Amino acid sequence: MQLSFFSRRLGVFARLAAGTFLLTFAILGVMLEASLGFSSAQADSGQANFSLQPVVYDPTNPLTESYFIFDSKPGIVVKSRVRVTNTGTATGSVSLYPVDATTGQTSGAVYLNQDDPRKDVGAWTTLGAQQLTLAAGQSQIVSFQVTIPSTVRPGQHLGGIVAENLAESSSPKNNSAIQIKVKNLTIIAIQVNLPGTPVEQLAGTGVQAGGDNGYQRLLVGLSNTGTVMLKPSGTLQVADTHGQVVKTISLKLDTFLPQTAINYPVAITGQALGAGDYQATLILTYGHGQTLHYTTKFTITKQQLVQTFGTNNGKTQAPAGLGGEGFLGLPLWQLLIVVGGGLAILWGVGKTVYGRLAVSRAKVKSADIQSQSSQQFKRPDIRQEPSGIQSKAKRTR
Amino acid sequence: MFRHRSKLVHVAVALVLLVISTMLWPSLGASATYALPILASPTAVCPTPGNNACITNTPTVGLPLNGLDQNVSYTLAFRLNNATPGTWHVTITSTLFTAGSHTLSSTASSVTAVAIVPSCTGSTCPQNTIIYPVAVPAGNTAPAPNTFYDNSPGTQTHGQGTFTIQATIQVTVPANSFTGNYSSTVTISFVSGSP
């Protein structure tokens, strides 16, 4: 008895449709199984990892244990050494290169990429080796020199030496929508102090409204036009058109390098600022008793609010948590269609099977009935006797 | 009569199957999984003494596209060792999330929280001064990084030792994003000692 959905009762059209659906479902099932659950490449127990440390340091200045500080003059070549250690558990290769430093947008010294142009300490520094291969626990001392130009701005200059692990971690290849590769760098700073009257000077360059993903921010433009590093702190006050102070925000910035500028993001907490005109008053103290007083106007537009908060108005929102839609990632309406289609298949298959069973039983029953009928109506082979003898046979029974 | 009705039923079922298949085909290009945070328990024996940090997981995240703006988070875990006194900080930058010719916004990612696991108490714990969220810079080439964790101002003892740190990074995926597997290279830099 053939119990296949692809019965001869279905036309070619129906068979193709059923086949397409089953194929789609099969592919979807494979993809679901492949991508469900965690997907993460755990760090191998054996991997290389690199650290940088000065070989010698000034015992009177503990900071020199952590990074290089050179008090020098223009036109001088400063020579020193850095210890590169593979602190991991496997042999690995590391790339070494010098870079310039700059001020990060959220303040603090950050270090530029290998491909970025070098104009300051990064350009002055030459390493004795560009690439090393070290066994686990092995160290190697690399010499380097800093050639200070004859003509150069006085004050503080900052760069660094980067140790880039040439093994890049990658997430496993699967059907996940977002995959991350991670590069791990270790950087040691090189600070060069050149003689000259230190200039401590900070300037405000503007305030702009901004923000996204539910976080409203004011971008405060700042520029260190002096010759030394600064760590400003103070307050930002925001007043509306009536002069009423609507926000007072404390600020504390990290290292701000000389001859750099940033748009420092100030987060608006609590009730967000609505659309309109405002006045910002920035008061920052820095250096040796220096103070910046900066006042400027800015405008928040409705379009900016929409960009920050979407169609919701209101206070700054926390980031949305994790979320998925429906079961197995399918929206409800798609799920209903899939379930409905499955039920339709079952109904069709069941109907076909039942029909065949019914036909089969009917045939069997019919065969039984015919068999019984043939037995009931079967007569013995009796020859025709003369009438007198038959009558006598009947009487004797 | 019964035979004709049966055929009509079968054709109707076939039509339903075709419609379902047509609706399901677009979702084959996207990952039909529930968005999950990815966190691997640190298993690497790292770091060892010396100023360095090592990453202990490489996360991936699945995200079904449903026609709405969505936020998805992943956790970046790393171990950090600092043996010398003074300030240090950890910076982050990245390349754009890219799937073929399609990219997410340069402002798609931000660090929303950083925690030491297990939580740290005592005079050796880092004094983190960073306020979150911190934008993760992104570009065709990784731009200048942002500091997302630090030990500043550091005293003689604060920030010395080994710490397991977990950073939560949120990625905003707009409703009109193209389906695909988006990949980004995130660069973490441990600056051991810096003014």
Structure description:
The complex is a heterodimer of chains A (397) and B (195). Chain A is an alpha+beta fold. Among the domains of chain A are: 50-171 and 178-194, Immunoglobulin-like (Sandwich); 202-309, Sandwich (Immunoglobulin-like), CATH 2.60.40.10. In chain A, 23% of the residues lie in helices and 38% in strands. Chain A contains 5 helices and 19 strands. Chain A has helices spanning 12-35, 121-124, 302-309, 332-376, 387-396; strands spanning 40-42, 50-54, 68-71, 77-86, 92-103, 109-111, 125-127, 131-134, 139-147, 155-165, 169-170, 178-194, 202-212, 215-224, 233-239, 245-252, 260-267, 276-286, 290-300. In chain A, the strands form 4 sheets. In chain A, strands 3, 5, 6, 8, 10, 11 and 12 form a 7-stranded mixed beta sheet that branches. Chain A has a 4-stranded antiparallel beta sheet with strand order 2-4-9-7. In chain A, strand 18 (276-286) and strand 19 form a beta hairpin. Chain A starts with 11 loop residues before the first helix and ends with a helix. Chain B is mainly β. Chain B folds into 2 domains: 1-30; 31-191, Immunoglobulin-like, CATH 2.60.40. Chain B is built from 1 helix and 12 strands. In chain B, the strands form 3 sheets. In chain B, strands 1-3-11-7-8 form a 5-stranded antiparallel beta sheet, with no helix packed on it. In chain B, strands 4, 9, 10 and 12 form a 4-stranded mixed beta sheet that branches. In chain B, strands 5-6 form a two-stranded antiparallel ribbon. The longest helix of chain B has 23 residues, at 2-24. Chain B is elongated. Chain B starts with a helix and ends with a strand. The chains are: A alpha+beta (397), B mainly beta (195). The interface between A and B is large, with 115 and 114 residues.
